[in-house]
Amino acid sequence: CHSIEKSRQRLGYYPRYSSLEAIQQAVQVLITQGKVTVPTSKGITEKTTFAQPTETLMPMGMFPLFFDLDHTLWDFVSNSRKTLREGYEAFALQGVGVTDFSEWVHLFERTNDWCWEEYRQGRMDKTTLRSARFEIALKTIGSTAPSELAKELDIHYIQYSPKQTGLIDGALPLLEELQRRGHQMWILTNGFEEVQRIKLQCCGLSPFFEAMYTSEELGVKKPHPDAFHKAAAAAGLSESEDVVMIGDSWQSDVEGAQNVGWLGVHYNPEGELEPAAWSTVRNLHEILDLPLSSRV
Fold this sequence. Notes:
Elements: H1 6-11, H2 21-32, E1 65-67, H3 76-90, H4 101-120, H5 126-141, H6 147-160, H7 171-181, E2 185-189, H8 193-202, E3 211-214, H9 215-218, H10 225-234, E4 244-247, H11 250-258, E5 263-267, E6 279-281
Parallel strand pairs: 1-2, 1-4, 2-3, 4-5, 5-6
Helix pairs in contact: 2-5, 3-6, 4-5, 5-6
């Protein structure tokens, strides 16, 4: 997961969309029309089904490792943009007022980021996120597209984006070396269950991980402490173990992990100023130089 402001850095400054005001105005229109709803309740799911914990077989002293998936291992930006390009052409968006693809990508990414932040904060549910993000983006850009087209765009995006196979530079050799050293590894993600599993399988990373735990399965999202506690319990890890969480989001991955006593590794390729983590890396290969085992 990543901050909304990274969208501006990725695609440059578009004065028309320099703030979220236009997006929020489009949202208000959809709320009035009954197309966007706000969850009436939220909370932690009490009953959660976990995979059976496996016996720990790591060499003595090797820290168990949890990875975030999107923007940390799976290249969300390039995979998403490839899918958006395919949808832009397949649905002839130029004919409904979306004349600049770069502008369209910029706006969709900002809208999607905004929707995801609303979801993380419990102000938007999964169904609304998926149904509204393309419609909000189309309305904000002034498109004449009907609501049905927004739904078709989202169906296309959900179907094809998870099947893209782009990885963050260095992800594969990093996992190969960590596995060779004897680390056990898991995925801990706020992404949706069915989509994240498709990503992991299609990009070939499944064999490196013992299991993947999603916020839907756990019933709680990072950075809530229960997300980390439940994931550790499902993995068969004790509270006393030194556990490492590696991810690109300071708040969700690093701060959340450190608040429960884990070691947080912040993958921060853009060098953004953030509070101190246990460790910060600009490139994934730097993780191999970290002290990921105890002296025994």
